[in-house]
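Work Package 4 report. The design task specified in the project plan requires that, given a folded chain encoded as structure tokens, an amino acid be chosen for each position. We show below one input record used in the internal validation round.
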């Protein structure tokens, strides 16, 4: 068994990381109860979903750490949940502006700057797009497609994996892993692009709602869960991370990624509790939004 193969420092590390995961879950449950009691029902579920991202990723990483054979399923579960959270974050920004109708009235003469990351940050020549119901629909579609297609691709990957055709470390053009990974990467970039376009427009308006630190936490989850894990897996596949018997390079890279995620998601869970709770107290009066100038200077 796994515990039998661990020395005393290894068992202490596993116990500490498991304790951090349990604390993160308890912190989230306490925050969810607070949100349920204090936040209007129109925004309640969205904020709970976003706050759940870090503890869910921490939990799946902890399960994958203790049960190595479940790593593929836990990674896929975290990926599906995170795809939904990206869409929820975009919807939260729209809700914080008062909803779609209020947002359209507030930015009646405004324009979206689409030359932003991660897709078009260098394309400064791109035109600014008017803020209309149609452009809002395309932004919501940009994140919604990821929430829909990511689970479909995960299901396809699991079916191919059970049949022995899907090998995560086999990135040859003849294997399905490379093509599925590239397709998921493209969908992820489009979803993050939509969120970046919306944030760039509403960040001044929603400054009093702590949208900047919330977006920073969201970005940290993106970087740590997606980019960091991918880099570690590539290093493990190329044998840059040496094997340590009985663990191969791939298994050791997976352990490193999971243990880092548990510690990082624990910190993000605690910080999220502070950021979101402070924001609720500051935004009880609705006049907070009405007094924010934002892009009102564009309106006659």
């Amino acid at each position: 068994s796994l515990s039998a193969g661990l020395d005393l420092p290894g068992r202490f590390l596993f116990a500490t990381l498991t304790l951090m995961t349990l604390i993160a879950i308890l912190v989230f449950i306490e925050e969810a109860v607070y949100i349920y009691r204090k936040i209007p029902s129109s925004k309640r579920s969205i904020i709970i979903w976003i706050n759940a991202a870090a503890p869910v990723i921490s939990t799946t990483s902890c399960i994958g750490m203790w049960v190595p054979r479940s790593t593929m399923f836990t990674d896929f579960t975290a990926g599906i949940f995170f795809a939904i959270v990206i869409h929820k974050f975009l919807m939260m920004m729209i809700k914080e502006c008062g909803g779609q109708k209020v947002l359209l009235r507030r930015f009646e003469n405004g324009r979206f700057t689409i030359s932003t990351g991660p897709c078009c940050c260098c394309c400064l020549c791109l035109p600014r797009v008017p803020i209309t119901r149609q452009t809002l629909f395309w932004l919501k579609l940009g994140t919604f497609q990821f929430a829909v297609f990511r689970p479909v691709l995960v299901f396809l990957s699991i079916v191919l994996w059970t049949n022995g055709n899907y090998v995560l470390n086999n990135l040859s053009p003849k294997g399905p892993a490379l093509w599925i990974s590239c397709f998921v990467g493209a969908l992820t970039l489009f979803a993050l692009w939509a969120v970046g376009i919306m944030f760039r427009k509403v960040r001044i308006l929603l400054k009093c709602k702590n949208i900047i630190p919330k977006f920073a936490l969201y970005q940290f989850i993106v970087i740590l869960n997606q980019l960091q894990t991918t880099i570690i897996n590539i290093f493990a596949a190329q044998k840059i991370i040496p094997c340590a018997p009985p663990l191969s390079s791939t298994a050791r890279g997976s352990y490193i990624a999971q243990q880092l995620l548990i510690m990082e998601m624990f910190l993000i869970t605690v910080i999220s509790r502070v950021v979101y709770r402070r924001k609720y107290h500051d935004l009880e009066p609705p006049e907070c939004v009405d007094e924010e100038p934002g892009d009102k200077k564009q309106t006659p």
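The chain has one domain: 8-277. Validation will be extended to a larger panel in the next phase.
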